[in-house]
Specification:
heterotrimer; A alpha/beta (417); B alpha+beta (961); C mainly beta (88); B: 961 residues; alpha+beta; 6-stranded mixed beta sheet; 22 helices; 53 strands; 28% strand; C: 88 residues; mainly beta; Folate-binding fold; 4-stranded antiparallel beta sheet; two-stranded antiparallel sheet; 1 helix; 6 strands; globular
Chain lengths: 417, 961, 88
């Protein structure tokens, strides 16, 4: 049986008809108790289990997934990885994720195809350039590899952008992060699953939480469609459905669920080598290694749990895309879909113990959870293992809503609320 | 020659109109009515493309939207990459190129990849390319991937039309079921819209034999369509329903073949009938992807519609009855035909001139660039230049599933059929599993909204009927050879087995891991065989494995259709000033500010802009300046509780304001953050005007309405947004009063009658004017508001009269300097989304006010009381230095690294002071005046000294000068 | 495109509406409201999957109203004027 992935093992397996590969992860029956349970088999949940085993040597761990692993937002996003954040707290968090991403393929022995092709957030006016400068300076002070781009710089990385004098959203410059890029979203989930499974973690699919077991005011386990499972440390990472589980646990969260749509064109030969975001259109775009133009935009502004795309938002997003890249007017839309995201008032995640003791939260990532998976996993694992925050997770505790100490990246960008 | 055009027949083609076009540089001849695919087939072009991964030669498979193989890049004026050759009409002079092939489909130089196929199975890339680094490999892999090429010189052929449409019944598909349903609905008095993705209605009736109401089926189809059209119902050919969205909105993609872009239809029908037919499946055998292997139904369609016989020595391979008509037809057209049926019993009568082999299946096909021979599972081998296969029929239930319909597995049909009905949607015909015309028509009766109301008789099938016998022939685990399931993405039986071995057994994992069904055809021919194979491997039933989610669009839709006219100036259109024309005449240079197109400055372009701005700002202080402030918000708050209302909305107490007076204040959000600032005018006891920031008018208006409806009610307060009704012309400067006096505005300008922060009423040219003594420049100012459509003469008068005072027109840039000299803030520029009113030096209401107001409680949180908050300050630079860059940060050092302690929000060279000025938000700044701090901008360090925000005329004497 | 019933104007496209929050989230007045209560009002949401009672504004006519709808199926169950006079 071949366990380790490498060019050599692939070659050897090729000679043997690729028949010797093991399961990427085991699918055991759930045990009646674990040292820790992670609810949610997306990137964050699987990463949590992996880091529990790897960093804290806690391996009696179950990841419980309602459907199939990686099937939530991990498999529905536009795969952007970046850490170009404004506030020091955000930089610590997303910077950790970014650094872990850079070593992830080797760490997991799974090619997550981190492609650091750079990302530019465009500025369309003098005012936006001033905010851009404010942002870049903050990032540089906090140790992020940000640069303030001139129009010529933008032209260099995205020559097919609409630089015409009639463009609705002209380019005055941009905020560049060279280390930003994309990663293969499914591979992140599968890579963590495989690595966690090899360290002894049980990954249980088709297992839905029906209730929490509460004894003495503390969470002691959960009822599932596959029976009761007990543990004294339970983490939940169920982006999009956090409020649903919170309601079962008896508390509310500062979250609204919205659909975020994305779509891809038919695959074409490479034309766009970087990630481009325009605040004017709200559209961000990259080209996948398969050749599809991957397009994301704003939220559907209607609270929803329906994972489906709609027309009005799609039309707005694509109109924006074609304003940015008129030559994409010759392409066709191949697939559109939606994920359900947790939208928090300050657009920063919630990491920490919930109002139900023993139950720990990793939620509220909004539209940006994918890029944070390694950090979300590391921090929730630390909480589950130690019961305590570390310096990176502490500012993101739920208690910030009472103290008023929100971490609002949009606010930092000068958007008044 | 193998495939060829036969001498007679072809219902779609017009032999009197020959056409020529090019494919991969070679000339192809055809007739009007050909598709690119039918013409290529008629010219015996076997290899039309290359597969995505292994660069295997690919031939035409189908005759419609399901086509996985025959994609071409159309060049020239109407360039479109990845066009399906099977649905694209051939036209004179068209240039088509195969995709993913260099230099041509026939001689692709990457064909060698297929020899390494065993080393690059499904998902191989996750297992390698990690050392030394993925970035080493990615560029080459990237270049290999993708299909068609984007034409860099492409320009838009025009705006795609978007049409909203309502009807009683939308019938999707104009085959027998769709026609019958449309006719029935029309007979019941309902308005019908009938669409079909083909250029001609009829669906299968166009190439399958049958007799309806005593007529040949194709004749019945034409008559039915003609009758519907004559009754005023809408018939849209070449139109595909690509998605059903919320509340049954249907998206249609209508194609045009005259150079116009496709049209997007958004249809809101009361009822939807999905008569979308079914798609033929391939059969699993080794090398079943070779060119020359076609869907049997496509083979029949090419023969009857285009008079193209797909081969001379044809093997028809089937597991069901539908291929018998195909075998008979191609034999009658002159081919040597062998029919191989996997069934031993229950098969239809053998057609004449066809050799029938029962109880056998194809084991493999062989050939280099096209099929040359086939081998049966008993080892017997025949030469063949064409294989027509039918693996059964998959109902086209994509739209039903998009509408959240659930499927039910039918073992008898070996297919998923629509399950429980979805509100407002019926499925009819082959899409619902019907086979014979009798079954089809029987099913239509319930599909239309009002059963029993129909005034027309149901059509009757009067001829021989198709039969639906089938014996499932799914791909089997452990099969020998390379058996393709997804042709375009190169997914074979072994890949599915590999996925199962590695625990990717969920159907969604199977799809993502192997890319099965993720190609441009979205798995129309491959999904069901793939999941049936997974069922076989894992010992589950097909319904236990289930299907992946069906997502729009059903077929690829041009991006341009979704954008429509929304581009350029029509995208997020800017708001324009009533006096824009006058400003242009005065040489204004316009810029967009908060959604408004406003004069930035007058005269002085590009390099001269700064000088023009400086000049305007300087002259404004010297005599008098004219400024168009029309964008300023003017929202009226009227009613018996107007005073209580503004008290609640503002941070500052406003009810104590006397009629005829103005007061500056903040509006907060409930989180305490300063949302807007501006002057509130009290016109009389029960009437206020909220002057809010230009870019905030609609947001402020929405907030006022929200609180009015939440807490005050209909009879207490009325809110009216009068912003666009009035133009506001500002006269500012030491000579402002003198200039205004020349106008005779019919009111007293005496200090006693119109002091600073008072409002007066006069008239100009018979129109009422409102004059407010408020100042954003620090100089004596008059804001004159007048009906927007009467503003122009007043503006002209001001400019004319201003000549005597050396008046200067100033744009927004100069105004920004003037207000910054005074330390006046702009919300969103000098504040951010965390700024509280006391950060701006406004502490009074917070500590003293006893009444409730929006955001109050949030001003007393831990965060609001933090002692190191960012506070508004002025910043000065050492003598002789340039202005600070806006966006630069104040820094401090600690723990071996830098920390931000705030930032520069506004920075200018002040012509009045002759030195740079700046505003900023700096940690504890209000208590640190006089302190010098380090400033960092893009890595460079400089210094600045904290000062009071107001740098010019701090005593405010000029307001009264 | 969803159709929402404005109690005043009738069914209109979703793009004419703006979501206003949970129905029944009553504002606690006063500077001495316990901070947890204030934070609950400001930030905590029911966010149900399924039947929801929400405040919406029809931007075209400017009226706020209460709408009951299902956040999963997107079925609209009812809508009513604030105070409940007009109901659809």
């Amino acid at each position: 049986m071949t366990r380790r992935y490498s060019a050599l093992s692939l070659f050897k397996e090729g000679l043997a008809g690729q028949t010797g590969w093991k399961q990427a992860w085991r699918s055991p029956e759930p045990k009646s108790s674990y040292d820790a349970i992670v609810i949610g088999g997306g990137g964050h949940g699987l990463a949590t289990a992996y880091y529990l085993a790897k960093n804290h040597n806690i391996t009696r761990v179950a990841v419980l997934e309602k459907g199939w692993i990686g099937g939530g937002n991990t498999g529905r996003n536009t795969t952007v990885v970046r850490s170009n954040y404004y506030y020091p707290e955000s930089v610590e968090l997303y910077g950790l994720a970014h650094r872990l991403y850079e070593g992830l393929s080797k760490d997991l022995n799974y090619n997550v195809m981190l492609s650091q092709r750079g990302m530019v957030n465009l500025c369309h006016s003098t005012a936006e350039m001033e905010i851009g400068a404010r942002t870049v300076n903050a990032m540089q002070i906090n140790g992020i590899d940000a640069e303030l781009f001139s129009p010529e710089d933008v032209r260099r990385v995205a020559p097919i952008y609409n630089f015409s004098p009639d463009a609705r959203f002209p380019v005055f410059g941009g905020i560049w992060q060279g280390r930003a890029g994309t990663a293969r979203h499914d591979a992140v989930a599968w890579g963590y699953a495989r690595a966690a499974s090899r360290l002894g973690v049980d990954i249980i699919q088709n297992c839905e939480i029906t209730d929490f077991i509460v004894e003495g005011g503390r969470c002691r386990g959960i009822q599932t469609t596959r029976g009761a499972i007990r543990a004294d440390r339970i983490g939940m990472a169920v982006a999009g459905h956090s409020s649903v589980l919170a309601a079962k646990a008896g508390f509310r969260l500062p979250i609204n669920s919205y659909a975020l749509q994305a779509c891809v064109s038919e695959p074409v030969k490479p034309v766009l080598d970087t990630v481009v975001l325009s605040p004017g259109t709200g559209v961000y775009v990259s080209q996948s290694d398969k050749g599809e133009i991957v397009i994301g935009g704003g939220l559907d502004r209607i609270p929803s749990y329906a994972q489906r795309g709609n027309l009005p938002t799609l039309e707005t997003v694509i109109a924006g895309l074609l304003e940015m890249f008129p030559i994409f007017g010759q392409l066709k839309l191949m697939r559109q879909w939606a994920g359900i995201v947790d939208v928090v008032p300050d657009s920063s995640p919630i990491i920490g113990e919930s109002p139900l003791p023993n139950l720990f939260l990793n939620c509220g990532w909004g539209t940006g959870g994918f890029k944070a998976i390694p950090a979300g996993g590391t921090l929730l694992a630390n909480l589950l293992a130690t019961g305590k925050h570390n310096d990176i997770s502490r500012p993101f505790d739920l208690n910030r809503f009472a103290s008023g100490r929100l971490i609002d990246e949009a606010a930092g960008s000068g958007i008044a609320h | 020659m193998t495939a060829s055009r036969i001498a007679q027949g072809g219902t779609a083609i017009d032999r009197s109109q020959p056409i020529r076009f090019s494919f991969d540089g070679s000339t192809v001849e055809g007739f009007a009515g050909d598709t690119i695919a039918s013409a290529l087939l008629a010219n015996d072009v076997a290899v039309v493309g290359r597969s995505f991964k292994y660069h295997r030669p690919r031939g035409i498979w189908g005759a419609g939207v399901e086509e996985p193989n025959a994609l071409v890049d159309i060049g020239g004026e109407r360039a479109t990459p990845n066009t399906r050759a099977t649905t694209e009409p051939a036209r004179e002079g068209l240039e088509a190129r195969s995709v993913n092939a260099t230099p041509s489909a026939l001689t692709d130089r990457n064909a060698f990849l297929d020899r390494f196929a065993r080393f690059i199975p499904a998902a191989f890339y996750y297992k390698t390319f990690m050392w030394p680094d993925w970035h080493m490999f990615e560029p080459r892999i990237r270049a290999m991937a993708g299909l068609g090429k984007v034409d860099a010189g492409w320009t838009s052929p025009g705006t795609a039309d978007q049409i909203n449409h309502h009807c009683d019944v939308l019938v999707v598909g104009a085959g027998p079921a769709g026609l019958a349903a449309a006719r029935l609905a029309a007979g019941a008095g309902l308005s019908v819209t009938l669409i079909d993705d083909q250029q001609r209605a009829g669906g299968s009736l166009g190439h399958r034999t049958g007799e309806i109401d005593g007529k040949p089926a194709s004749v019945w189809a034409e008559e039915t369509v003609a009758a519907l059209a004559a009754s005023g119902h809408l018939i849209l050919p070449s139109t595909t329903a690509f998605g059903i969205y919320d509340h049954n909105l249907v998206g249609l993609n209508q194609r045009h073949f005259d150079g116009r872009p496709d049209t997007l239809w958004r249809v809101r029908p009361r009822r939807i009938v999905l008569a979308t037919g079914a798609i033929e499946r391939p059969l699993p055998f080794a090398n079943n992807d070779l060119p020359g292997i076609l869907s049997a139904d496509a083979g029949l369609s090419y023969l009857r519609r285009h008079a193209v016989l797909a081969g001379r020595r044809i093997v028809v391979a089937t597991n069901n009855d539908s291929a018998y008509e195909v075998a008979q037809a191609v034999a009658e057209a002159g081919a040597d035909v062998t029919l191989v049926d996997i069934r031993r019993e229950g098969t239809p009568t053998a057609p004449a001139k066809v050799r029938v082999i029962k109880g056998r299946a194809l084991a493999s096909a062989s050939g280099k660039l096209r099929v040359e021979a086939v081998t049966l599972d008993d080892g017997s081998r025949f030469d063949a230049d064409c294989v027509l296969v039918s693996g059964g029929w998959t109902p086209t239930i994509h739209l039903f599933c998009q509408a959240k319909g659930k499927l039910a597995w039918s073992e008898a049909r070996a297919a998923f059929l629509p399950g429980d009905p979805v509100d407002g949607i019926a499925v009819a015909g082959a899409a619902a599993g019907a086979v014979s015309l009798s079954e089809v028509f029987a099913g239509c009766e319930n599909a239309v909204a009002a059963p029993g109301q129909a005034k027309v008789a149901m059509p009757r099938s009067t001829g021989a009927e198709a039969t639906g016998g089938i014996s499932a022939a799914w791909p089997k685990p452990g099969s020998k050879g390379r058996i393709w399931i997804d042709y375009q993405n190169d997914v074979t039986v072994k890949d599915v087995e590999l996925a199962a071995r590695e625990n990717f057994i969920s159907v969604e994992h199977l799809k993502r891991y192997t890319t099965l069904g993720m190609a441009t055809d979205q798995g129309k021919t491959s999904n069901l065989p793939g999941l049936a194979l997974m069922a076989g491997i894992t010992g589950r039933t097909v319904p236990e494995v289930g299907t992946t989610t069906y997502r729009p669009p059903f077929t690829p839709v041009p991006l341009a259709s979704f954008a429509g006219a929304r581009a350029g100036a029509l995208m997020a259109p800017v708001r324009r000033l009533p006096l824009e024309g006058a400003h242009r005449e005065s040489g204004a240079v316009f810029q967009e500010y908060g959604g408004w197109l406003r004069p930035a400055h007058y005269g002085g372009r590009d390099a001269d802009a700064d000088r023009a701005i400086q000049d305007e700002a300087l002259r404004a202080r010297q005599s008098v300046a004219l400024f168009d402030g029309s964008t300023l918000g003017k929202i009226e708050v009227i009613g018996p509780q107007a005073d209580a209302f503004v008290d609640f909305l503002y941070y500052n107490t406003m009810s104590t304001l006397k009629p005829g007076r103005c007061r500056y204040g903040f509006m907060l959000s409930e989180n305490g953050v300063v949302f807007d600032d501006g002057v509130l005018v009290r016109l009389d006891e029960h009437r206020f005007v909220v002057s809010c920031s230009s870019s905030h008018v609609s947001a402020v208006h929405a907030r006022l309405e929200e609180w009015r409806q939440d807490r005050f009610g209909r009879d207490a307060v009325y809110i009216h947004n009068a912003t666009s009704e009035m133009a506001t012309l500002t006269v500012s400067g030491p000579n402002a009063r003198k200039l205004i006096e020349t106008l005779d505005l019919r009111l007293s300008l005496d200090e006693a009658d119109l002091p600073h922060m008072a409002v007066g009423h006069g008239s100009y040219g018979g129109d009422e004017v409102r004059i407010a003594r408020v100042s954003f420049t620090g100089d004596r100012s008059y804001e004159i508001s007048i009906r927007a459509d009467r503003a122009e003469p007043l503006w002209a008068h001001l400019r004319e009269a201003g000549k005597a005072f050396d008046a200067v027109l100033i744009g927004l840039e100069a105004l920004m300097i003037l207000r910054a000299e005074k330390g006046f803030i702009v919300i969103g520029k000098d504040t951010d989304g965390t700024t509280l009113p006391h950060d701006l030096g406004s502490e009074g209401p917070r500590t003293k006010r006893q009444t409730e107001y929006v955001g109050r409680r949030s001003l007393f949180t831990d965060e609001a009381s933090r002692n190191n908050r960012l506070q508004l300050v002025g910043l000065t630079v050492p003598s002789g230095e340039a202005p600070l860059p806006t966006g630069a940060h104040g820094i401090k050092r600690g723990n071996g690294r830098l920390h931000s302690q705030g930032f520069v929000t506004s920075s200018y060279l002040s012509p009045a002071l002759g030195r740079p000025i700046a505003l900023g938000l700096i940690e504890r700044g209000a208590a640190r005046h006089g302190e010098t701090i380090e400033i960092q901008h893009l890595g460079k360090i400089s210094s600045a000294t904290i000062a009071a925000p107001c740098a010019f005329d701090p005593a405010g004497d000029r307001l009264h000068a | 495109m969803q159709l929402f019933p404005c109690p005043f104007c009738g069914p209109r496209d979703e793009t004419e509406f703006h979501y206003g929050g949970d129905a029944g989230n009553v504002r606690p007045d006063g500077a001495d409201v316990p901070i947890d209560r204030w934070a609950n009002y400001l930030y905590l949401r029911g966010n149900p999957k399924g039947a929801a009672r929400e405040i919406w504004v029809h931007m075209t006519c400017g009226e706020f109203f209460v709408m009951e709808r299902d956040t999963l199926s997107h079925k609209v169950l009812s809508s009513a004027e604030l105070g409940g006079e007009h109901t659809i």
